[in-house]
Write a structure and sequence with these properties.
Length: 418
């Protein structure tokens, strides 16, 4: 029997037993939110040419020296360059070119003056006639330079970086349409309990629906994995051992729920011990003390408690970091905030308590946190209805209204700064 360890130790233990999975190549559009498994390089300068950042006139800056509101300088437009077009003529002194946003800046010009600050004093402003300029632009004003976003051959996204939705556009511009990323872990979700029936059924006497599998598979998917909900396993040691051994062969990570404590029909601990290496049996947290972890056939096997809120917490706080690491992510901490409790809480035991709770703003803008009325570890509903977990640290001390507590935002991305 292994001793009770802290949440941090449990997380470190499970993290230490997994590595990023091998790379697979995905279409760029499917790479959003995933981690680059190699440096991604641009195949050209982006943008490939200097171009206008505004609709206006391409000019030689030097020719507008001394231009003011009272003594404008007149230039003659000799052509119009739309986006996608190229001006291949030559411009003599005193001439300019009308240019649209995105159009290549002709080499002979060095600034763009936007429409809004000039006047067309003769002609239609496109070809021939006169345009009045009232100020000298800065060098390269309203010009986006070639290679401003990326240079040919430059690593624009580094190995280990999470590709954002904007990053997908960035990579598209750089010609990177196939992205190496870490393969998604295949997670087996195994419900253990002779009382369980499929949620599609109406439970008979003494039976309940297997709700955990759905929650845990949803958690696995939300963590970026592929989830397989395996059939219900009754509280039968031999049957459980066979299923766990098999799942360890076919999956990258095996998650069970139920049968993880010390009841007469709780078999996940002896099964992991016999089939592999048992590394952890309980964690100093509430809900969710009975958390079993071990390795079977080289595969991590995690036995969550059966109580829904306890299973959920074990998954989100201990399993999820490991599943993220397997996909190359390196941030594992969700953001936390400090808030004042609106009600007190008696501490029933010294374990670290995670209360399902709702953050809100008080009248002065301060953060308040209100624990859900029902804190039973048997309930999913309060997690659905709340927006954080308010933490009461290890120890016996009760919490009073007005006490400041740390609240973890499990729905906010890991590594987010708030
Ligand atoms: P156990 O951890 O097996 O002692 O189960 C603790 C509580 O969780 C019991 O009330 C079980 O009926 C319930 N439970 C176990 N597995 C599930 C499941 N898959 N879905 C919903 N409740 C469950
Ligand atoms: Mg049970």
């Amino acid at each position: 029997m292994t001793a009770m360890i802290s949440l941090e130790q449990a997380r470190e233990l499970v993290l230490s037993r997994v590595e990023p999975l091998e790379a697979e190549t995905v279409d760029l559009l499917d790479a959003a939110g995933r981690v680059a498994a190699a440096d991604l390089k641009s195949d050209m300068d982006v943008s490939p040419f200097a171009h206008a950042a505004m609709d206006g006139y391409a000019v030689r800056r030097a020719e507008l020296e001394g231009a003011t509101a009272d003594s404008p300088v007149m230039l003659e437009p000799i052509a119009e360059v739309p986006a996608g077009g190229v001006f291949d003529g030559t411009a003599a002194a005193g001439q300019c070119v009308r240019i649209m946003t995105g159009a290549a800046l002709p080499d002979c010009f060095d600034a763009v003056v936007k429409y809004e600050i000039v006047d067309i004093v003769e002609g239609d402003g496109k070809c021939g006639g006169k345009v009045a300029f009232y100020a000298q632009p800065k060098q390269r004003d309203n010009v986006r330079e070639a290679g401003e976003e990326a240079k040919a051959g430059e690593a624009v996204v580094n190995r280990g970086e999470v590709i954002t939705t904007a990053g997908v556009g960035f990579l598209a511009g750089c010609g990177v349409l196939q992205v190496p990323t870490h393969r998604k872990p295949r997670v087996a979700v195994i419900p253990i309990g002779s009382e369980l029936v499929a949620p599609s059924e109406v439970p008979g006497p003494g039976h309940i629906r297997n709700s955990n599998s759905y929650a845990l598979a949803a958690c696995a998917k939300a963590a970026g994995c592929e989830a397989d909900m395996l059939p219900i396993v009754p509280d039968d040691e031999a049957a459980l051992e066979a299923v766990v051994r098999q799942a360890a062969k076919t999956h990258d990570f095996v998650v069970t729920s139920g049968g993880a404590s010390n009841g007469d029909f709780d078999f996940i601990k002896p099964v992991v011990e016999r089939a592999g290496e048992l590394l952890m049996t309980s964690v100093n947290m509430r809900p969710g003390k009975a958390q079993t972890f071990g390795i079977v056939d080289g595969t991590p096997v995690f036995g969550l408690p059966g109580n829904p809120a306890a299973a959920y917490m074990g998954f989100e706080l201990i399993i999820r970091p490991a599943l993220r690491k397997m996909q190359g992510y390196s941030a594992f901490e969700h953001p936390t905030v400090k808030a004042k409790l609106t009600s007190g809480k008696k501490k029933k035991d010294p374990r670290r308590l995670f209360m399902r709770a709702t953050l809100s703003h008080g009248e002065a803008g301060e953060l308040l946190v209100t624990p859900a009325k029902k804190q039973s570890s048997g309930l999913f509903g309060p997690i659905q209805k709340t927006n954080c977990m308010a933490i009461l640290p290890e120890g016996a001390q009760d919490a009073k209204p007005g006490d400041e507590v740390t609240c973890v935002l499990l729905d906010a991305p890991e590594g987010m700064v708030i």
